[in-house]
Amino acid sequence: MNTKRRSFIKSSAAAGAFGVAVSAGLITPRAVMAAWPKAAFASTDTNAAIKSALGSSDTIASSDIALKAPEIAENGAVVPITVTSKIAGTESISLLISKNPTPLTATFKMGKGAEGFVSTRVKMSKTSDLIVVVKANGKLYSAKKEVKVTIGGCGG
Amino acid sequence: MAKSIKVRAKAKDGTTTVKALISHPMETGMRKNKKTGKKFPAHFIQEVTCSHNGNTVLSADWGTAISKNPYLSFKFSGAKAGDTLKMSWVDNKGASDSVEAKIK
Lengths: 156, 104
Known about the structure:
By secondary structure, chain A is of the alpha+beta class. Chain A contains 4 helices and 9 strands; from the N terminus they run H-H-H-H-E-E-E-E-E-E-E-E-E. Chain B is built from no helices and 7 strands.
C-alpha cells in the first residue's frame, strides 16, 4: 500500500512539472509577433520606453498637442483620454503613464489620410503623469498632464 | 470570438470619424485571484489595424494598460459614405477578430 502511495505522489509531482512546462510554452506565441515592440512595452522606465519605442527619448514640449483627460479619475481602471495633435505630418501618437508598472500604454501609427486624433480609455495604477509623445517629421514632440487617481474612493 | 468588435464610422465634410468598441478582458497579468493567490495570466490585445480600400489608416500597438473592453476613436480623410472600413485585432495568445463596416 505504502509503495503505491509513494509512486502516486511521484507521478502527480511529475504531472505538475509538465503543467508548468505547458503553460510556459503558451507564453511563447507572444515572441512570434515581431512587429509588436515587446521590449518597449516591457520597459519599466518612462524614458527607456520612449527610446525603445520611438528610437530616441529627446522630446520637445509642444503646445500643439491637446491632451484631454480628467483632472481626477475616480476609477483608475477606466480613464478616458483624447489626444489631438495639430502638428502637420503626425506619424504616430504614443501614450505613456509614468507610474504604471510598464509606462508604455499604446502607440497609434497614423496611416494615409489619418488625422492626428485618437481617443481611448486606459488603466492607471495611481496618480501619475500622463505623457503623450507625437512623432512628426522625424522629431518627437511631447505633452503631459497629471491625472489624480482615487481607486476605491467615494469620489473627490 | 465572432462579433467582438462594434464599429461605427461616419463621414462628414470629408472627414470620417470612426468609433469602435471591442469586447476583450485585457488582463494585465498582474491581477491576483483572491481565492488561490495566483496571478491571472496576461491576456490583452497587442495590435489593432484599421483599413479603408486596402490602405491602412491606423495601426496601433497596445500594452496592458488599455482598459478592459477597449474603446477607440480616430479620424481620417479620403473616405465617403458607403465605403467599407475593415478593423481587426490580434491578442497575445494569437487570437484575432475582424469586422467590416459601411461608412455612413
